[in-house]
Design a protein that fits this description.
- This protein is about 40% helix and about 20% strand.
- About 45% of the residues are buried.
Length: about 450
C-alpha cells in the first residue's frame, strides 16, 4: 500500500499499542450527553460544518422518550466516498455524561480518542491503555466565554446549553474543521432574532478551539480536509422531505395528532403550506388540523377525502392501530386518503424513540374484512418526497386509502441527498366532475 494517503484512504491496520497514522475524511464521532442539555444544536453545527466543507456526512440522534436527564447520543459519520452508515466503534468519543462514560469508553476501537470532562469522578484513562484520553475544563472555559450575569435568572440553564459549543471548538481543533464553517453553522442554528445567542455560542466555540490549540496534541490522527462533494447536494430529514411531498403533491387537508416520530412531519408541512399556499389577501387554500386523538385525525381526513379534498394524516404504529376501523371503512366506501406511518419500535410505554419497520404487513391488511391496501416504502429522503406525491395521486386515482411507510431513522435524522426534482406531470385526480357535468346531471351522488 502506498504511504501517500488520498482523501478517501485510511492508514493500514495497526496493533493496539502502535501509533495510528493519519486518517483523512473518514470520521466517526459519537457525543454522549443527557437529554434536555441543549446538545442537539451543537451536534447539528458540527454536522453542518462538515457539510459546508464539502464532505459527505450524515447524523443520527439516539435519544430517550423525551425524559430530561436520561442518556442520549449523537453519531456523526463523514466519509469521502459517501458512506453514511453509522459505526458502533467511533474514532472520537465526546463524554459529557459521566453515567454512561465507562460503557461508552468500552465500545471504542483501539487508537480512538476520548474527549471528556475533567471534573468526572471516574478515572477514565485507567480503563483503557489503547485509547487517547483528553481531559478538558469545559465549564471553566464556557464561563470565560459567557461570564455570569446576576441579573439573568436563566443564566445557569443557558450556561449548561452553551457549554456544548466548547466541545465543538475542541473538535474543530482536533479534526481540522474550518472555523469559518463552524461559525456559519452556528449562525444558521441561531438566525434572525437569535443573533445575540449566536455570538455567545461562537465565543464558546472559540474558547474551546483556542484551549485545544494550546493544550492538546497537534498530531492526532483523525482529520478532515475540504472537498467539493456536497456542492450539488442537500442535507435534509426524511420528515421534512415528506412534508415537501405534501406541498408539491397538492394536499389541501392535513390532520394529525402528536406522536413521536411523526410530529415534525406535520409541523414542517404546516410551515410550508403557510409559506406557499396563502394569497395576497391572506386566504388559505389548505387546512391543517391538530386533532384530539388519532381516531379524530383519520376521521377528519377521510371526511375531507369524501368531500373531494386531497387529504393526508401522519402518525406512527400506535396511531395506526387506533385508525383500524376508520381505514377499513375508507377502503370499502372507496374514499381517498393518505396515511404516513413513521414507524417506531414498541407502544407508547415501550421504545417510541427507536426505529423499526414492523408495521408493513399491518398497513397492508389494516381493517375488518378482506382489505389489501397500497403501501409505498421509501428507502431514501428523496423517495420520502416522491412517494408522498405519488401516494396522493394513487389515492385519488383508485379512490382508496394509501399508506407511506417510513421510519424514525429515515424521518428524524439528516441525510445527504440529490436535490429533489420538481414535479413534471399534473396532479392525478381520478374521475372528477366539472361544472358542466354537475349541471347536466343535476346533482352529485357519489355511489350512484
Amino acid at each position: 500500500m502506498s504511504s501517500t494517503l488520498s482523501v478517501a484512504e485510511t492508514a493500514p491496520a495497526r496493533a493496539p499499542a502502535a501509533k495510528i497514522g493519519p486518517v483523512i475524511n473518514d470520521l466517526a464521532i459519537r457525543v454522549g450527553t443527557v437529554n434536555g442539555s441543549g446538545s442537539q444544536s451543537a451536534n447539528l453545527v458540527l454536522l453542518r460544518s462538515l457539510y459546508a466543507m464539502g464532505i459527505p456526512c450524515s447524523g443520527k440522534n439516539i435519544f430517550p422518550s423525551n425524559i430530561e436527564g436520561l442518556p442520549t447520543w449523537f453519531h456523526i459519520r463523514a466519509n469521502a466516498k459517501g458512506y453514511g452508515a453509522h459505526r458502533a466503534d467511533p474514532d472520537i468519543l465526546v463524554c459529557m455524561n459521566e453515567v454512561t462514560a465507562q460503557d461508552d469508553v468500552a465500545e471504542l476501537k483501539p487508537g480512538a480518542i476520548c474527549l471528556y470532562r475533567e471534573d468526572f469522578s471516574v478515572d477514565l484513562p485507567s480503563l483503557r491503555d489503547d485509547v487517547t484520553f483528553l481531559a478538558a475544563p469545559f465549564y471553566k472555559l464556557v464561563e470565560q466565554a459567557y461570564p455570569p450575569d446576576k441579573t439573568d435568572k436563566g443564566y445557569r440553564d443557558k450556561l449548561r446549553k452553551v457549554v456544548n459549543m466548547v466541545y465543538v471548538g475542541m473538535l474543530a481543533s482536533i479534526c481540522n474543521i474550518e472555523l469559518g464553517a463552524v461559525e456559519q453553522g452556528v449562525r444558521r442554528e441561531f438566525p434572525g432574532r437569535k443573533a445575540k445567542a449566536a455570538e455567545i455560542n461562537i465565543a464558546a466555540v472559540h474558547a474551546g478551539y483556542e484551549w485545544a490549540q494550546a493544550n492538546l496534541p497537534t498530531n492526532l490522527p483523525y482529520q478532515v480536509r475540504r472537498m467539493e462533494s456536497t456542492q450539488d447536494k442537500i442535507l435534509i430529514e426524511g420528515n421534512k422531505a415528506a412534508a415537501l411531498g405534501v406541498l408539491f403533491g397538492g394536499a389541501s387537508v392535513v390532520t394529525w395528532y402528536p406522536i413521536t416520530p411523526s410530529s415534525s412531519l406535520a409541523e414542517y408541512a404546516e410551515a410550508f403550506l403557510k409559506k406557499h399556499r396563502v394569497d395576497e389577501e391572506g386566504r388559505r387554500s389548505f387546512a391543517v388540523i391538530q386533532a384530539e386523538d388519532e381516531l379524530a385525525a383519520i376521521g377528519m381526513a377521510i371526511g375531507a377525502g369524501w368531500a373531494g379534498a386531497r387529504a393526508l394524516t401522519a402518525t406512527s404504529g400506535p396511531g395506526i392501530s387506533l385508525m383500524t376501523e376508520f381505514v377499513g371503512m375508507g377502503y370499502f366506501a372507496e374514499i381517498p386518503v393518505v396515511i404516513i406511518d413513521v414507524q417506531r419500535m414498541g407502544p407508547s410505554t415501550g421504545l417510541p424513540t427507536r426505529t423499526s419497520q414492523g408495521d408493513v404487513l399491518k398497513m397492508h391488511l389494516l381493517g375488518h374484512g378482506d382489505c389489501r391496501h397500497i403501501v409505498l416504502l421509501p428507502g431514501s429522503v428523496e423517495e420520502c418526497y416522491e412517494l408522498v406525491v405519488e401516494a396522493l395521486d394513487l389515492a385519488q386515482k383508485f379512490q382508496t386509502p394509501v399508506f407511506v411507510a417510513t421510519d424514525l431513522d429515515l424521518g428524524m435524522n439528516l441525510w445527504l441527498s440529490e436535490p429533489f426534482r420538481y414535479p413534471d406531470k399534473p396532479l392525478e385526480r381520478g374521475k372528477i366532475l366539472n361544472q358542466a357535468d354537475l349541471e347536466r346531471l343535476g346533482e352529485f351522488s357519489r355511489y350512484k
